[in-house]
Fold this sequence. Notes:
The chain is globular, with a radius of gyration of 22 Å. It has two domains: 28-50 and 319-461, Aspartate Aminotransferase, domain 1 (Alpha-Beta Complex), CATH 3.90.1150; 65-316, Type I PLP-dependent aspartate aminotransferase-like (Major domain) (Aspartate Aminotransferase, domain 2). 49% of the residues are buried. It is α/β, with parallel strands linked by helices. The protein contains 16 helices and 14 strands.
Amino acid sequence: MAKKIIKKRSWAEPFKIKMVELLKMTTPEHRQKAIAAAGYNTFLLKSEDVYIDLLTDSGTNAMSDRQWAGLMLGDEAYAGSKNYYHLETAVKKFYGYKYLVPTHQGRGAENILSKCLIKEGDIIPGNMYFTTTRLHQELAGGIFEDVIIDEAHDSSNLHPFKGNIDLNKVNALIKKYGATKIPYICVATTVNMAGGQPISLENLKALRKLTEKHGIKIILDMTRVAENAYFIQQREKGYANKSIASIVKEICSLTDGATMSAKKDALVNIGGFLAVNDKKVFEEARNMVVIYEGLHTYGGLAGRDLEAMAIGIEESLSDDHMAARVGQVIYLGEKLMEAGIPIVQPIGGHGIFIDAKKFLPHVKQAQFPAQALAAAIYTDSGVRTMERGVVSAGRKANGENYFPKLELVRLTIPRRVYTQAHMDVITESIEHVYQNRKKIKGLEMVYEPKYLRFFQARFKPI
Ligand SMILES: *Cc1c(COP(=O)(O)O)cnc(C)c1O
């Protein structure tokens, strides 16, 4: 009898392309000049000079025809827009939160939440810091404490849920400061700064038990909650046959509220919200949004943006969408690994993170290896990546640099935007840069803004 051959079947996008955006192709000489003019900071490049843009997955999504049609249904009334009510219904139905405060993007929600919940001297534990999240906590008088498991700081550790929280670290903080000093724990899904690593439901349930005992809230940074749900479906026992939508709902049900940057998972170009279950917190947040964002039924957005967000939330929870979304990221990651490029493993949900310390062992961390590598990749091929290392980490209150263990270059994949051929071109470029890596020199920072310096800092080669 012939042996049955089981062949792996390919995934492919559950959509076809209806409109295209033409790109300019550039020469190496042009790119050399462009990156020097940008102070070796890929954030300061003109988008026109970029071929494949992997700077971020934030607001770079391709919207569907349904979302574009939704824009035409924008109800631009100052108050009580029907798109607001559509969004409120979507947030209740798909995430289960009771109260919604729309904001212009994620950091708008973080600002309001931090101001509502944090008092001077409070401790805010979180599974690794995120730039804007931590800054808003600090500006509100709080102190961020990292409680992610140690494995998350090791780029080659293969733990399937590197976004998990170390409950011993949480317990130690409760012991040291007292539960009353900890208004909430900030739990991020597919932890961005760890390389897009998920948290397990088992871990979240255990955290819920622990915090409930002490009256500490859990606030979800739900920016990439659907991508996290995909990993739970693929990796966590008991969830293989559950839908992404039901897993997302379960995650949210274990928390007291959430901040959302809809520019990521929710497939829009702008938007975000704060959602909570506590009526008192809601009332305070709804009052505060008027100061910082706009009336509570638009939160700094146009009615059409709210409509696109409501539709995008539903599309983001489709199992086929998520299999193709993360499938493309894994395709690129596996190709890079085959080429011997040191990347963070396991491959994360929204992008590939190159380990710049391993890629450029001859460049000291104080000379910004990830920043230098991002500039070199751009010069090679017009592929724009970004630094997630010592520049992004910024300085402590006492002025010293944070020196994070992870010194990474992030290749973030926009949703529904690029093809498999683009992924192949990216791989070839990085392979080429890797072969010539010894020629890459470190950088010196010549301009440093006070807040979130990675966006605007300027450098020159040493
Ligand atoms: C992008 C992001 C934010 C901030 O959201 P913005 O929409 O950029 O203001 C917060 N948390 C995480 C994990 C993010 O990725």
